[in-house]
């Protein structure tokens, strides 16, 4: 059985889907640090440019990495990568909010990817545990929903019941995918399933050129988009390194089970931006004031097609509250300060030209 106290006894390789991703980069680094062999499932194993940062890690660390071609939408494409693995980390899933076809760009890859990976786990006798990257979006769609949660605080027991294809399509895709995962898991009795449900992920990337919707949020704090002010749009945030650690602990802690809400801070857009003011306020247009809800409600839909007045009404000036105690208690997670995470990501974005042409 997997043992969190001595991972050196785990001789079998570990599979990671979406290995070039934001969270996966730090997870792969952790696995390699522990001397494990990582089966990295990627779209194109021949793309040395995209794999450069992972290869550099493998050269410096005691573990090994082997690449396997796989595609979320192709059934059976994970067979070779999963063969012989006891532990599977399924991190591959898009995080984008601006899409032309929500079903094709969000729902289909999230659902098909989950089905293809977990059905392959059913067909791979060596697999003992799957750790699935879900999201707090599968717990809550809008901040107004928090008023309906037990004690008006989010926890692992809460599910997103309000999102749909036409409202919060990204959150809807994460909810459908996680529900499908538990359905497939409950239909078998050989392997275990653990889900990691992070809030907005921030912090430095292993690959500084990685893509994530998180970067767009942080970029707005310094590119002038919020020069008139930042709204009190509540959400949770967590450092990417802490999310990766949560995945690792969920994989190698024998007692880990169920869902884990991974969120360090209950915050909002203004507070997030304000964490950068001390260090970057003199050189970048960090918003200095709170933007009232009414101008966002009135003009937001004209400036951003994805920002409806309904979304503004259900989220702005509504606090985001979550209980992260299960992961602290069962996985031993310790969270980094908000300012540390924000400054590390913001500086990385500066160093790699993310603000040029803003």
Give a written overview of the molecule.
- It is a single chain.
- This protein has 358 residues and is α/β, with parallel strands linked by helices.
- The protein has one domain: Rossmann fold, CATH 3.40.50.
- It has 13 helices and twelve strands.
- The chain has helices at residues 22-33, 48-60, 79-82, 102-122, 169-186, 213-220, 240-252, 269-274, 277-280, 293-303, 309-315, 325-331, 338-351; strands at residues 14-17, 37-42, 64-69, 87-90, 129-133, 192-198, 200-202, 230-231, 234-239, 258-262, 265-268, 290-291.
- A seven-stranded parallel beta sheet has the order 3-2-1-4-5-6-10, sandwiched between helices. A three-stranded mixed beta sheet has the order 7-9-11. Strands 8-12 form a two-stranded parallel ribbon.
- It is globular.
Strand content: 15-25%
Number of strands: 12
CATH topology: Rossmann fold
Class derived from helix and strand content: alpha/beta
CATH class: Alpha Beta
Helix content: 25-40%
Largest sheet, if any? 7 strands, parallel
The secondary-structure element order is: EHEHEHEHEHEEHEEHEEHHEHHHH
- Please state the average pLDDT score: 91
Protein name: Dihydroflavonol-4-reductase
Organism: Reinekea marinisedimentorum
GO molecular function: oxidoreductase activity, acting on the CH-OH group of donors, NAD or NADP as acceptor
Keywords: Oxidoreductase
Layout of helices and strands:
Elements: E1 14-17, H1 22-33, E2 37-42, H2 48-60, E3 64-69, H3 79-82, E4 87-90, H4 102-122, E5 129-133, H5 169-186, E6 192-198, E7 200-202, H6 213-220, E8 230-231, E9 234-239, H7 240-252, E10 258-262, E11 265-268, H8 269-274, H9 277-280, E12 290-291, H10 293-303, H11 309-315, H12 325-331, H13 338-351
Parallel strand pairs: 1-2, 1-4, 2-3, 4-5, 5-6, 6-10, 7-9, 8-12
Antiparallel strand pairs: 9-11
Helix pairs in contact: 1-7, 4-5, 10-11
């Amino acid at each position: 059985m997997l043992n969190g106290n001595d991972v050196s006894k785990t001789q079998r390789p570990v599979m990671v889907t979406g290995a070039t991703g934001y969270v996966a980069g730090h997870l792969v680094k952790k696995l390699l640090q522990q001397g494990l062999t990582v089966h990295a499932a990627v779209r194109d194993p021949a793309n040395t440019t995209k794999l450069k940062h992972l290869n550099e890690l493998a050269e410096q660390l005691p573990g090994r990495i082997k690449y396997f071609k796989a595609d979320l939408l192709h059934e059976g494409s994970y067979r070779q990568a999963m063969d012989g693995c006891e532990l599977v980390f399924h991190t591959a899933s898009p995080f984008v909010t601006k899409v032309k076809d929500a079903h094709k760009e969000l729902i289909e890859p999230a659902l098909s990817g989950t089905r293809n990976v977990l059905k392959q786990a059913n067909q791979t006798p060596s697999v003992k545990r799957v750790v699935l990257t879900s999201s707090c979006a599968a717990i809550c769609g809008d901040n107004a929903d928090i008023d309906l949660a037990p004690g008006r605080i989010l926890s692992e027991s809460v599910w997103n019941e309000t999102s749909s294809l036409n409202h919060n399509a990204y959150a809807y895709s994460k909810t459908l995918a996680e529900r499908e995962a538990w359905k497939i898991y409950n239909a078998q009795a050989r392997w275990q399933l653990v889900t990691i449900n992070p809030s907005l992920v921030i912090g430095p990337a292993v690959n500084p050129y990685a893509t994530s919707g998180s970067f767009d949020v942080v970029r707005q704090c310094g590119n002038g988009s919020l020069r008139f002010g930042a709204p009190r749009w509540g959400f949770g945030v967590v450092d990417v390194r802490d999310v990766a650690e949560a995945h690792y602990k969920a994989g190698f802690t024998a007692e880990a089970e169920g869902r884990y809400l991974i969120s360090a801070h209950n915050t909002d857009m203004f507070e997030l931006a304000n964490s950068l003011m001390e260090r970057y306020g003199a050189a970048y247009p960090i918003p200095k004031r709170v933007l009232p809800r009414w101008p966002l409600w009135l003009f937001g839909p004209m400036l951003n097609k994805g920002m409806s007045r309904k979304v503004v009404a259900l989220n702005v000036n509504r606090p985001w509250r979550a209980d992260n105690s299960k992961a602290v208690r069962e996985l031993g997670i310790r969270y980094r300060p908000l300012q540390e995470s924000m400054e590390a990501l913001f500086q990385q974005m500066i160093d790699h030209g993310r603000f040029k042409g803003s």
